[in-house]
Design goal:
The complex is a heterodimer of chains A (542) and B (217). Chain A has 18 helices and eleven strands. The radius of gyration of chain A is 33 Å and the shape is flat. With 542 residues, chain A is an alpha+beta fold. Among the domains of chain A are: 22-114; 367-427. With 217 residues, chain B is an alpha/beta fold. The longest helix of chain B is centred in the first third of the chain and has 23 residues, at 3-25. The chains are: A alpha+beta (542), B alpha/beta (217). Chains A and B meet through helix 9, helix 11, helix 15, helix 16 and helix 18 of A and helix 1 and strand 2 of B.
């Protein structure tokens, strides 16, 4: 049977005419309905009062020894009350039924579009009570659920840190690290990620080791800004520990930035950080320890972090490339007189860390073997399917031409099995997980100096590089700590110059609503938790 | 239909059935349908629902209980003719581990339980409240408020002993198996605030190991 173009057009027109899109106000209406009861408190009270009076009159009429007049009066009242009671009971029942019907209809319609949610009005309600500049990150966190929670906590935390919402940044990185440190054993989504028919990115994102290390780095930076040097040090050491998974021994625990900051945290405590500084210098020649009298640490971040991509026939090999849009490779930290604008101090910073280097020297991951197996399965089943389909079709055709029904049947059977192999190949998903923390920097530079009365100056950084546009002098995003130990943090590229969601990280609604019920219910619980736990609008930028 | 053809046909059928069964079985793992977990009250003395390789609530309870018993058994601290004045806070209790922790969780529990159990055999100086105390002392001496009922002293209480200590850890990882291990050592010491000698020491050690699922290693 063939379908004419005219028919297709007619179907398309009919689809347009009869397709009722789900608008955001459907979820608003549902939320409104859920917030208000179907029957007003007055109507319920009225029904209860009438019910009581109705029972009383019914009992009173059964009493013995009533006079004729009393009976007559009671009967008249009974008749009126009964009528009113039945009337309001009916009205309330009708309102309740109508309410239930509308709620069910809305739920059905929304569920068809969004699965278990979140529905637009829920997202809007959650996001509206957060600081406006952070709302895109909170929206992603709310919509993308547990699967991308660590990724979104990290993106949010970094943006909040740059914008001065330190409480939000602290909360976000704490929650991220809670999840990074949780042991994922017997986790259903982790098991699913190993299945041949599920992609690796169905698992909850924890990030590659360099991403985990950077989460610790930023949390440590916040501790530094709060003068909590012990916990800052714990974070930097934990960050370094993340780097111990490298396949090649040469690259294990070579995250010099973490060693250097470990030393700085000790320096701020009035202890010797020599050992940690020396360890950092082992990996970065020419990196020197700060002078004992130095009290200000300049951390300046340059460029944009590594970009993940899937290599191989089926994109099953996780690889990294540099983001070549930005070209700054060096920085000078500046202290500026706020009245005259005169630069009173300029310190050349040392590029202590290349985040791309950390990402690309990790070596193979244990999960790569699983992905390779999936790729082989996909390739083999495709090849077997092709051969069987061809052989089966040829046998079936030969059988048909020669009038041999059995041969035709066997051929069809073989072709069918070939088709099933082909379908299995199509269904196999060997792609590597390329979700990435996209507002990370490429380089982190360090410099230290002795500056008394730190708060009297403004701070900025000047950038150098070749091969493209270099950003202008940029003001520091964070200046914190007292005279004893301060930190100045500057970025050449804003952490907010990214989309609402990390590229490729958010699932479309069709995929979201088709996720297993258990996963969707877990996200519902996550959103409930978020609504209770997230810092609100009241915490302003500092 | 010849025997060979029948056999071939059956083989095809069996292959089909086997393949389909295999395909269905391989179509993904069984999923947990548990609809999240509502808030649950947990016994902080037992391992909680979320466990890692660091110090957890049950460790804090266990270590502070043990240190408290040990201190109460020390004659210099708990059996002196004049009850010693001790300071127990986190000021000199150092976190040198790889775990972020609020040290007050440990020192507060230790102080509160010691105070309750010692029943006057030790006197605890609330050094963290010294500003509050000084404010009230000033008001009394300025005549803004009366002298109260316990009388006035020349100065706030000084400490005879103060708690010091360290939380330290050593982390290791087996790159082959992905096994992570953390050995944590918490030392507690009571220091004589005149002579600087350590009059009591206690130690609590824990070592935990775990491995993430292979997809996270």
């Amino acid at each position: 049977m063939t379908i004419s173009a005219g028919r297709i057009s007619a179907v398309a027109v009919a689809s347009v005419l009869f397709f009722h899109p789900v608008y955001a106000d459907d979820s608003e209406r549902l939320m409104e309905l859920r917030a208000s009861p179907p029957i007003s408190a007055d109507a319920i009270q009225q029904e209860q009062l009438l019910a009581t009076r109705y029972s009383e009159l019914k009992a009173a009429l059964k009493q013995k020894g009533l006079s004729k007049e009393e009976k007559k009066a009671l009967k008249a009242e009974y008749k009126t009350v009964k009528s009113e009671y039945k009337s309001i009971q009916k009205a309330n029942k009708k309102a309740s039924k109508s309410y239930d019907k509308e709620v069910k209809k809305l739920e059905k319609s929304l569920r068809k579009e969004y699965g278990m949610g979140p529905y637009p009005a829920e997202t809007q309600l959650y996001v509206a009570s957060r600081p406006e500049p952070l709302q895109p990150y909170y929206r992603s966190l709310f919509i993308e659920g547990e699967r991308n929670a660590v990724l979104n906590f990290n993106r949010l935390g970094l943006a909040a840190l740059e914008l001065g919402y330190l409480d939000h940044a602290e909360w976000a990185f704490d929650r991220s690290i809670d999840k990074i440190e949780a042991i994922y054993a017997d986790n259903e989504q982790a098991k699913a990620a190993k299945s041949k028919f599920s992609a690796e990115d169905v698992k909850e994102f924890k990030g590659e080791p360099y991403e985990r290390a950077m989460a610790y780095y930023y949390r440590g930076l916040i501790y530094l800004s709060n003068d909590d040097y012990e916990n800052a040090r714990a974070m930097f050491r934990s960050g370094e520990y993340q780097d111990t998974v490298s396949e090649a021994e040469d690259f294990q625990a070579d995250f010099a930035l973490m060693n250097y900051l470990d030393g700085w945290a000790l320096h701020c405590q009035g202890r010797s950080g020599e050992e940690a500084f020396a360890k950092a210098a082992d990996f970065r020649q020419g990196l020197s320890a700060p002078a004992p009298e130095h009290n200000v640490l300049f951390l300046t971040e340059l460029g944009s972090g590594p970009v993940k991509y899937g290599d191989g026939e089926y994109r099953e090999i996780l690889k990294f490339r540099t983001d070549d849009r930005f070209h700054e490779t060096a920085a000078t930290a500046l202290a500026v007189n706020m009245d005259s604008g005169e630069v009173v101090r300029a310190v050349d910073a040392y590029p202590v860390e290349d985040v791309y280097f950390q990402a690309s020297t990790r070596g193979g991951r244990p999960v790569d073997g699983i992905l390779e197996g999936k790729a082989q399965f996909k390739e083999t089943t495709a090849a077997v399917g092709n051969v069987m389909s061809t052989a089966g079709t040829v046998t079936a055709m030969a059988g048909l031409y020669s009038g041999d029904g059995d041969a035709a049947l066997i051929g069809a059977g073989i072709a069918l099995i070939g088709g099933l192999f082909g379908a299995a190949s199509e269904a196999a998903k060997p792609e590597a997980d390329t979700r990435q923390w996209d507002n990370l920097p490429r380089f982190v530079t360090v410099a230290t100096d002795q500056i008394s009365n730190v708060e009297q100056y403004g701070y900025a950084a000047e950038f150098k590089g070749t091969g493209g546009a270099i950003p202008d002098i940029t003001n520091a995003a964070l200046v914190a700590g007292g005279d004893a130990c301060s930190v100045v943090w500057t970025r050449s590229r804003s952490a907010t110059a990214v989309g609402e969601s990390s590229p490729g990280a958010r699932l479309d609604w069709k995929t979201i609503r088709k996720q297993p019920d258990a996963v969707q219910k877990m996200d519902v619980a996550f959103r409930t938790w978020l609504a209770d736990e997230t810092p609100g609008e009241t915490l302003g930028a500092e | 239909m010849t025997l060979t053809r029948v056999t071939n046909f059956r083989v095809t059928q069996v292959a089909c059935a086997t393949f389909l069964t295999g395909m269905l079985a391989a179509c993904g793992p069984a999923v947990d349908n548990s609809p999240g977990v509502a808030t649950i009250s947990q016994d902080p003395g037992r391992q909680g629902a979320v466990a890692g390789v660091g110090i957890e609530s049950n460790d804090i309870q266990s270590m502070t209980d043990r240190m408290m018993r040990d201190m109460l058994g020390n004659p210099m601290l708990a059996n002196a003719a004049n009850p010693p004045q001790v300071i127990i806070d986190s000021e000199f209790f150092l976190n040198d581990s790889t775990q972020r922790i609020n040290k007050d969780l440990i020192t507060n529990r230790l102080r509160v339980n010691l105070n309750r159990a010692s029943q006057g055999r030790m006197v605890f100086v609330g050094r963290n409240y010294s500003n509050m105390v000084q404010h009230e002392r000033n008001l009394k001496r300025d005549g803004v408020v009366d002298t109260g009922t316990t009388g006035m002293t020349a100065a706030q209480a000084g400490g005879d002993y103060r708690l010091g200590g360290t939380i330290a850890s050593a982390d290791s990882r087996d790159a082959r198996t992905g096994m992570m291990q953390r050995y944590t050592q918490i030392t507690f010491e009571m220091v004589d605030l005149e002579r600087g000698v350590i009059v009591w020491s206690g130690m609590y050690e824990l070592s935990k190991a775990a491995a993430d699922d292979v997809v996270y290693r």
